[in-house]
Structure formats: C-alpha cells, structure tokens
Amino acid sequence: MLYELWILAISSLVAATCGIVGTFLVLRRIAMVADAISHTVLLGIVGAFLVSQTLEGPLMLIGAAVVGLATTYFIQVLDNAGVPADAAIGVVFTSLFSVGVILVSLYARDVHLDVDHVLMGDISFAPFHTIEWNGIPMGPQAFWVILAVFIIDLALILLLYKEFKITSFDPALAAALGIPVTLIHYLLMTMVSITAVASFDAVGAILVVALLIVPPATAYLLTEKLSRMIIVSALTGVAAAVTGYYTAKYFNVSIAGCIASAAGALFLIAFLFSPSQGILLRGRQRKKAAAPASS
Amino acid sequence: MSEAVRVENITAAYRKEPVLRNVSFALPQGRLIGIVGPNGAGKSTLLKAVLELIPKSSGNVEILGSSVRSQKKNIGYVPQRGNVDWDFPTNALDVVMMGRYAQIGWLKRPSKKDKALAVEALERVGMKEYADRQISQLSGGQQQRVFLARALIQDAQVYFMDEPFAGVDATTERAIIDLLKELKEKGKTVIVVHHDLQTVTEYFDWVLLLNQRLIACGPVEQTFTSELLQKTYGGRLSFIQQENLKI
Amino acid sequence: MQEWLQFLSSPNLQWVMAGAALLGLASGVVGSFVLLRKESLVGDAMAHAALPGICLGFLVFGRETLALMGGAALTGLLAVYAIRAVHSQSKIKQDAAIGIVLSVFFGFGIVLLTMITNGSYSQSSGIDEFIFGQAASLVGADVQILIASALVLLILSFLFFKELKLLIFDPLFAGGIGLPIRFLNALLSSMVVLVVITGIQTVGVILMAALLITPAVTARYWTDRLGVMAVLSGLIGGLSGAVGALLSSTISGLPTGPVIVVTATAFFLISFLFAPQRGILFRMMETRKNTQFVLNNFLLDTMYEKLEKRYAAGQYSALFSRRELEEQTRLPRNGLEKTIQALQKQGLLTQTDGKYVLTGTGLAYAYDSSLLRRIQDIHLTHEAELGSWKEASANGDLRKPRDYLMNERIHSLLTAEQKLPVSLAIKQSSIEYADQA
After folding, report:
1. CA–CA gap between residue A86 and residue A32 (Å, rounded)
2. Taking every annotated instance into account, which residue ranges of this chain make up the domain ABC transporter (chain B) (predicted)?
C-alpha cells in the first residue's frame, strides 16, 4: 500500500513538474528541443558517472544541466549557421545520444547504469531505493530529488513569471524593454535538463518528452490564460500519471509507457471535444475569419 | 533641449551589400515623424538598428542625449504585429500590462495600479470592453490597438512604431492617428515607419525619407516635395506629379 | 595484416557491412528530399512510431519479418497523418504536434513491448532490440531484404526525381500544372517509412533519424543541386554505415548504431567547419572581410569627399590628422585603427609626419569607390529609368566603376546633380592602378 503511494507520489510530481516547465516549451515552439535534451541528458549522466563512479548526488543534476545547455547551444550554433532548425535538432541529439550510448557500452557496462533503464525508467523499483537521514528512514530517494526539482522549477517560474511570459509572447518587445531574452531562454533550458534527469528514474528520459509536451499541448487547447494553462497542464499530467499507473498495474505492463499513453488519450479527448478548440465542437469558421490577415 | 534621436553614420550591411549606408540625422522632440521610403529601403532595419536590436557595422545612436541602453525606460516600441503568436493564452489587458514589465522590475508582480493603468490605456484606444477578450478573438485592427495601448502604458518619451497601420481598417487607422497626435500634443516624440504616401502630409509634421541612405529629413512641407520623393523612389512614382498626392 | 584480411573476409562481417552501407545509401538519398521538405523530425517521429507497429505485428502474426515490417509501416504512416491532423486541425504548432505523436506512439510501443516480454509468447526475445538495433545479428536473409528495399528506394527516387523536386520546391505550382500532390506526398512518406522499417533492425528506432538527417545535411554543404546532393548524401550515408559497422565489430563492446551515427556526424562536422562557401570558417572569414570591405570603402569615400571640398575651396593639402579622420568618420577608435591598418597594408594609405595621406593607388581607388557609390545613388533616384542597381551591378564588373561612365545617360545625370567626382590625381595614378587590377 505504502509502496503504491510512493509510486503515485513520485510519478505525479514528475508529471506536475514536466507540465509546468513544458508549458513554456510549447508556447515558444521549441518542443522538439526538449525532445533533444531528454535524449542527450544520458550523456550528462554517463559523464557524471565517469567522474564520480556513482549514480547519486547533485553531480548527476549538474552533468545533466551542462549537457542540456550544450545541446541548446549547439542547436543554436547550427541554426545560426544556416542549418534548417529541425535538422539541427536531429543532428545534435542523435550524435550526443550516440556518444552517451558508446560511453556506457565501453566504460560503464558492468555497473548499474543500463541504457534501457535510463531511457525507459523503472519506477517500480524506485520505492526500494530509500535514503536515511540521521538514522530516520526518509523514503525513496527519487521522491526527494524530484521534489527538490519541482520546488526549484516552481519557484523560478513564480519569481520570473512575467519575464518568462513576455519573452515567450513577444521577444522583440522584451529585448527593447531591456529584458535579457537569451538569459531567460538558457535558464529555461537548464530547468528542462534538470527536470529530465530527475525524472528518468520514474518514467525514463524519453518518456519525459511525453510529459513535457503532451499535457501542456492539452492545456493549450483548453485554456485562454497563461496561469490557467500552467495549472491545467500540471493537473493533466498528474491525471495521466494516476490513470497510467493503474492501467499498467491492471494489465501488468510498463508504467512509463502507460503514463505516456494516458497523456495521449487525454490530449485526444481535448483535441476532439475542447469547447473552443475541439474539432468536433468548435465554430471554426468564426475563428478563421477573426484571425489577422498577416499570419 | 536635446534631440529626441540623434543618429550618426549608421551603416548596416548584409554580406557585401549595405542595407543602410552612412545614415545620419537628428529628430527633434515633440513631433510626429514618419519614416518613408520604398520597399527594401531599410526602414524597419533602421528602427531596429537605432534600438540596438540588430548589430550595425558602424555608427552611433543617442536618444534624448544619452545612450540607448540608459534610456530604455523612455523608449516605447511597437513591433510589427505579424511577429507574435496570437494564439498565446492571454487576454488583451494582459498584453497591455506587458508594457510595464520593465518598470515593475524583477521578481515583482503587476500591482493594482499597473492594472488600472492598463485599463486606462485600453480605454484610450477604445478597447476597454475587450479587456478580458482572448487575443486570438480580436480582429487585426483590434490587435493593433492593443499593441498601441501597450506602448501608451510604457509612458515613454520617444515612441518607435513599425508599420502600425499595416492591415488595419479605416476606423482603426483614424483612431490610431488621433491618438498619436494626442501623444504629440503632450510633448512626446512619435516615430512611425509608414508606407502610404497619400496620408503623409496629413499625418506627420516631420518626415524622414530613406532609401538605403538618407534622402532628406525635415519638416514635412520642406521635405515631402516631389523632387525629393522622386529621389527616394527613383522615379518609380510617376504619379507623384499627378494630382492625387497633396504636396 | 593476415589477420585483418581474414577478419574482413569473415562472411558475417561482410553481411553486416554490406547491410549497413546499403541502408546508409538508401536513407541518405531519401533523407535529402526529407531535409529540403523541412520534415526531418517527422522522420524521427515515424521511426519512434514504428515501435508499436512492430509489437502489434508480433502479437498478431508472431515473429515473422514481414509481419513486423508491415506493422511498423502501418503505425509509421499513421504517425505522419496524425501529425498533419493535429497541426492543421488545431492551433497546435508543428513542433509540438511532432513531439506529441512521437512520444505517445513510442510510449504505447513500450506498453506493448512489456506486454510481450512479460507474456508467455514464444520467441519474444530480441523484440526489444529494435529500440537500439542490433546490426551484429544481421544475417544473409536480413541483408537480402535490405538489398531489395534499398533497390526499390533508389529506383523510386530516380523515377520520380523531377516530380519530387517540384513537390519540395513549389507544391502550389506542382499542383497547378496537374501533378498529383496527394499521391506524391504519400509516395514520399512511404519511402521514408520504407527506410525506417529497413533501418530499425540495424540502428534502432531512436537513432534512425540520424541516418535520414545527418548525411543529407552534410551533403548540402557541398552542392546547390538536388541531384548531386542526393547522390552525395547516399554516398556519405553508405560510407558511414560501412565504417560504423567495421569499427563496431573490430572493437568489442562498441554498439553498431551509435558508431554509425558518430561516423556520420564526423563527416558532418568536417563539412560544417571546412566546406567552401557554406562552411562556418569560410563564412566567418567572409563576414569579417565584408565588414572590413564596407568600412574600407567608407573611409576612402569620406577622405575623398573631404579632398574634393578642400580642392573646391582652393586648398591643396592631401594630409589628414588622426583627429580629423575620427571626426569625419565617427568610427569607434579600434574600428578606425583596423581600417587604417587594412588600407595601409593594401598600399592605399600611408603616413607622413604622423599624418595620413592617400597613395596614388589609394586616390584612384577612392575615386572609383566614390564614383561607384554615386552611380549607385543615381540608380536609386532614377530607378524607373535606369533599372535597379542590383540588376545593373550583377551584369557589370563592379571593380571597374569608370566603365559605367561610358553610359552617357549616367554621365549626364551625375554631371547634372554635381555628383561626378572631381578627378583629383586620376591621370597619374590610373596606370599604376591598372597594373594592380
């Protein structure tokens, strides 16, 4: 029973964290950069492991942040040099991910760092990996890591809410007002990276993408206000996590896979039935007529 | 009183081709100024180079007698409307409030006063009843008015507007120009990238003719002459000599 | 050496290398179309979306290669249409649509995968190898399929080359002249799906995108023509496949797929850095040269104009103090310094008694530069009559502005507007200048 609660707690926190951060990825049209980062954090994890010979501690988060920023930066460099944006993403993430896989195969083979685990996660083991503090059992380590990241992400977004908002909506105006657009961008990418690495225990780095993109996209269809979009996105993520978990338990299949599928199902419902946007219910003609001619 | 904008020898190049060549001018305060020139003359580029949003090969810009960086709070900017995602989940009031984000400062949230100012700004552009409207549901003209309200709330001394009349209906255009004139009456400087020659004399009292290099800059009655227009447009405006243009 | 030959002649390695090379070839060719269509990441989504199809194929028909491939093709195509539907039927943008489809399909694939591995299916082992690929397990039969599908892809690319080219370049026009757009779109998507289902066994679904994207981007650095690009991309892909397969079988523990990707990335990096015209080093040098070129001409023009004014006022001094140059140009200190140095190096400017003076060549050059700028002005102000400057300069030789003076109309306009530069020392220096040019 307690075991189940921990799993629900961890996966819900992961989903909520991803939902909050992912909102800005969807609004900035850089969802696939998040996809790239969630692949390349593998390299950060391996790097941190090769340095410290352990899979614990803040070094993991630092490694992920460094590689996440490097991924963002490389994509930017290729983009500026005239490589089409989507191809730039493809080249960078496949190459860094490959280097990560090769390093794992060469140096980290015999230890507890297997690629399948990092990519697909294995939340069913997370509750067993507990920590103690002054002799008091504190519960699973994964929970505390993701809680810490959740608090960091939430605090940053609350503190810099209007800066995140204006740089997402109108970067040209933001720059003219003197708001550091580039700095905010890299801060967001750092948040994505540490979120991805903190989540890999639960859902695996690749399915983090599902939680980073799908619930925010669902909320995008359902809300017309940024703060509400963030909340709905987090709640949709949690709903996907809970239904995903019970579905997985019922059919005895991958929890991470079920969470992603549940997120997909929730998106499909919004896509079909959203009051203002759903393709079955909305008055699309009206919206098209009101759209600006220039867009 | 220092000039609103002083620009010295701005050159901006794309590859070997200069887009702006050695442009220098000074714009007085308290005028409604039109930047006029044919397509590809570098009007938007000039605006962005002045605001330091794009790099320039050389040149120096002063706004109100000091550097652009130090005057950010006195600068209002209205970018082209097509550059933002109008599906963004926010309403008109919120967009207007963005104009105050720099004044509000880091880590702080918009206060009641900011909100009241935003409502007031919306009222001035005749959009008060649309405050709660999702921005994707606004028409092109209404979106432009929201952008204008956002500039008003910045309470700047010098305004830069990139094609504010592009794609708006006649009523909105009228409303916008009335507002710009009102700003001018209050001693503000308003600099507008404009492409409709028909309305130049009616709208502006100062005009800057640009075609990669500065053709002329001065009071509209002295500058908006057929000879200088001929120079700006390279004779492409054969109708200038004809009666439809009030010169 | 003997061992090496023996190693290379091992039939297993030959199969693997041949398979990887063919795969690289086919995906390189198809990838060029996909890249220019700006749908590289759609290919990525298709590859991820193949996973549930493979599992479904297995669940329904068992471990039959055709069943697995058929399932992969089905879900791969479904993914493409799902992306298009989400993108076109809602306000969701393309990138998010790709992300949604990719991650949800993949997640569902993982669900099915665990269903298979946890269930009591016979021969279920090895299904999860599709995630990372297992080139070492390629056997003769697999390579035969690879050969067949690579051939089909190459033939299709060849047969429909001009139609696909037009579809990519100008779909509206293509539709306008009666090409079947829907069919061509479906054809291209099917070709990508065929590449994907052929490749996932070797490199896996996650890295499949690299085979579509990286060789094509690399080829783009060396050519502007689609035909050449497709061939080049195919060669780079094939080479990466062969080298990657060879390396991974030589060094134990190296996984094939990632090594192929890293090899392809190495080709990309070399091109990205060093390719002429498009390579980053070339472009950086070009940008610096262009900026300096603009500044050089600016300084020369400014000096020439000043000399003209002095001449008109009856002053014949050709000397400029540093301060004068600063005031006249208003360039920042180090920008001016660099420009002065550049001009001195070219022998256009020289220093006497701490003052600057144009050399004979410099004077002639400055004359030409001023003249060119003024002719350009004339063109701008009389565009209707003389045509646009861009066209005029594209046809003429920019380095000989004096040739434009042969045009009587330009000459008379320059004279009329008092823009004809006073030819200060043109006579004695023109010979010198001609030697240089």
Report:
1. 8
2. 5-237
